[in-house]
Amino acid sequence: MQHGPAVRRRKLGAELRALRTSAGLTSGEAARLAGWHQSKVSRIETGTSGVKPADVRSLLDVYGVADRQLRELLLVLSGSGDDGGRHHWWHAYRGVLPPTYRDFISLESQASAMRTLETTVIPGLLQTPEYARAVTEAALEGTSAERLDALVEVRLARQDVLRAEPPLELSAVLDEAVLRREVGGPGVMSRQLNRLVEAARLPHVRLQVLPFSAGAHIGVTGPFVIFSFSRTSDLDVVVLDHLTSSLHLERKEDLRAYVEAFNGLSHHALSPEDSLDFIAGTTAGA
């Protein structure tokens, strides 16, 4: 269990080591071709030191990696501010976003799929502007109007991953409490539930409701997110949010446990079709 940057370094190092092996090079040969000392390659591969985006590019060139999407992903893990020409939009909000939130957005922007359990609020990727503002204002009581505006802008900008090509595949299990908790007043909540109905009809969005009648479940321990990446499962990670920080779980046994937990929750939840009816019914009664 580690904070985001340490996880990224270790995952980046492991992937670069695998690419070196696939290229048929020893660490010494890779270092010579890059014009470095062998110890630098070793430190990068073990994740014991940070690595500059320029160094990642050099190694990828040495290993003959031409896959643009994989190169972009590895540059994100290195903390690059440029992924082959497309600037990371969230860097403009460095003054208002804590590092853990920037880490989360960077993973979200490059993931191919996201599985999430939400027990208290609508997933950020599906929030309306009014709902996002009400939730943010409640979570950060006393924050300035300027900072509140910026955080809402970030929340809405994150939703572009659902409109990308290809879009992020989103699977969400929502505890019924998420639908019942009135955020921002009846009007805001009604429009938010309508937004959920619209989202549930998208081919790359799968929503399931876990009704109160399902009783106690493994999700009572709290919400979580599982990010998956199309190029390699070794980069998959679980993110747990806390009040002041986020924790990342990267061990295979942790990933397996959370995937099994999500699958179990999906099994006990209503089907996507029944969930759509449930949300629509909740909207009618809102």
UniProtKB/TrEMBL annotation:
Q: Which domain of life is it from?
A: Bacteria
Enumerate the spans annotated as HTH cro/C1-type domain. 16-70
Q: Which InterPro entries match?
A: Cro/C1-type_HTH (IPR001387), DUF5753 (IPR043917), Lambda_DNA-bd_dom_sf (IPR010982)
One Pfam family linked to the record: HTH_31
From the Swiss-Prot or TrEMBL record, give the protein name: Helix-turn-helix domain-containing protein
Q: Which organism is it from?
A: Streptomyces marokkonensis
